[in-house]
Design a protein that fits this description.
eight-stranded mixed β-sheet; 16 strands; pyridoxal phosphate binding; DNA binding; four-stranded antiparallel β-sheet; Aspartate Aminotransferase, domain 1; alpha/beta; Aspartate Aminotransferase, domain 2; 3 domains
């Protein structure tokens, strides 16, 4: 009746199905304005449902203004409801070609999640749910869970020898959110943000999407060349000094000091992204720039790679002059992070489970890195040169005389290999064309060996 077909096994109630059917027919003009609808008794009989079900549907139509009703008169369709754009045109389904499966995925920044202590983490989440004070379930503000801020300050002291006041620690949804906030907070009109070249495309995208100008600092085997900033109008400088992404170099003390002097003289801040600093396989962790001067450095970190990416918890250590504005911006972005995860992480740090996990994973990743380089040497001989310090979850490989572009990416995907030309991280696609970025943290020894062999075979076919 009236083109209404009811689905009795559907999760949507019968009354709402009737409402939706009338709504669609009214908006598409199948039932014109002013048209009288059947009485509730008549429609109920025609559809084989109770009158109460139809009355519910009519009440919905009346409440949302699709019909008008007067005592003693039939309900009629309200005026001005026809929407030509509401018509849904069914397009022919595109037949998609099946893509070959990725057998060897050398993506970067991916930890080995199989070795994370999930039972222990689950226990801490349950503990937070059971023992967290009710007051903590209210809005607690943009700074973050204070016990977690205190534990992060202690963790930085233990792992980096950084002396940090917990009041300067602000919890974020990973490093990406910190960058979004800082870019708006530090922007100065007609001043550029200075980035390393090459660098992570994420920070570049955050800045350019906001329409702010960029200034590039070339990167060599000693990190960013700070001299390129002299005489430039700068909003802020973003660097990855402990393990430059993606080339892996360490910024030496002389360049760090020069950067701090420029920041003080020109009144800008340095955004220090301590990328991959937990996983250094030769010697102690590299000291952060923050330890040299905390007045002009914003230190940001994340637990995405030390624990697991979906955790989405990071932090920023902010100089006092930036904190009020940060609170304002964060308050009107999303207020705060989920409290249970913050409480569980605070406990994870407090019980030194983080220390134990990082020590274990440092050994595991160090062995994987050695095995990767040995597999590369076995397949390619001495024709490949690794770049950077022995740290992190990826390595940059230089293949002298080779060039890797978009066609190589397509060919490698066809061969079941996901690998990243370093040109993808450069603003100009003609730089570092002979380098590939190879991630290994999440791969087993067998996957590494087979993947490198497959990569060698692919490159042998193309040369």
């Amino acid at each position: 009746m009236w083109g209404i077909v009811l689905r009795y096994q559907d999760e949507i109630s019968l009354s709402r199905q009737i409402f939706l059917s009338f709504k669609e027919r009214i908006l598409t003009g199948q039932i014109p304005q002013g048209e009288a609808l059947p009485s509730t008794r008549e429609l109920a009989k025609g559809l084989g449902v109770s009158r109460n079900t139809v009355c519910e549907a009519y009440d919905m139509l009346l409440a949302e203004g699709f019909i008008v009703s007067r005592q003693g008169a039939p309900s009629r369709v309200a005026e001005g409801l026809y929407l030509d754009t509401y018509r849904k045109v069914k397009l022919p389904t595109e037949i998609k070609k099946d893509k070959p499966p990725i057998l060897w995925d050398f993506k970067t920044g991916q930890p080995d999640l199989s070795l994370f202590p999930w039972p222990l983490w689950s226990q801490m989440i349950r503990g937070a749910a059971n023992y967290l004070p009710i007051k903590q379930l209210e809005y607690t503000g943009p700074k973050g869970y204070q016990p977690l801020c205190e534990e992060i300050a202690m963790w930085l002291l233990r792992s980096r020898s950084m002396e940090v006041n917990p009041e300067d620690v602000f919890i974020t949804a990973g490093a990406t959110q910190a960058l979004h906030l800082l870019v708006d907070l530090l922007h100065k009109k007609e001043h550029a943000f200075a980035l390393e070249n090459p660098s992570h495309p994420g920070i570049r995208t955050v800045i350019t999407d906001k329409g702010y100008p960029l200034q590039w600092m070339p990167v060599d085997e000693q990190g960013a060349n700070i001299s390129f900033l002299e005489g430039k109008a700068v909003s802020a400088v973003y660097v990855t000094p402990s393990h430059q992404f993606p080339l892996g170099s360490i910024l030496p003390a002389g360049r760090r000091a020069a950067l701090i002097r420029l920041a003080i003289e020109n009144d800008f801040y340095v955004i220090e992204d301590d990328y991959d600093s937990e996983f250094r396989y030769s010697g102690s962790p590299v000291s952060p720039i923050y330890s040299m001067d905390s007045s002009h450095v914003v230190y940001i970190g994340t637990f995405s790679k030390t624990l697991f990416p979906a955790l989405r918890l990071g932090f920023a250590v902010l100089p006092k002059p930036l904190q009020a504005k940060w609170r304002h911006y964060r308050n009107f972005m999303d207020v705060q992070n989920p409290i249970l995860e913050q409480a569980a992480l605070a406990e994870f740090l407090n019980k030194r489970k983080m220390d134990k996990h990082v020590q274990h994973m440092r050994r595991v990743y160090g062995e994987k890195r050695k095995f990767l380089l040995s597999s590369i040497e076995h397949a390619f001989g001495n024709a490949v040169r690794p770049w950077g310090d022995a740290s992190g979850l990826h390595v940059a490989l230089q293949f002298p005389g080779m060039g890797f572009g978009k066609q190589f990416v397509r060919d490698s995907m066809e061969a079941g290999i996901r690998v990243y030309p370093l040109t993808q991280y450069c603003p100009a696609q003609n730089n570092h064309k002979d380098k590939l970025l190879v991630g290994y943290g999440h791969l087993s020894h067998v996957q590494i060996q087979e993947g490198i062999r497959a990569l060698y075979q692919l490159m042998a076919r193309e040369t």
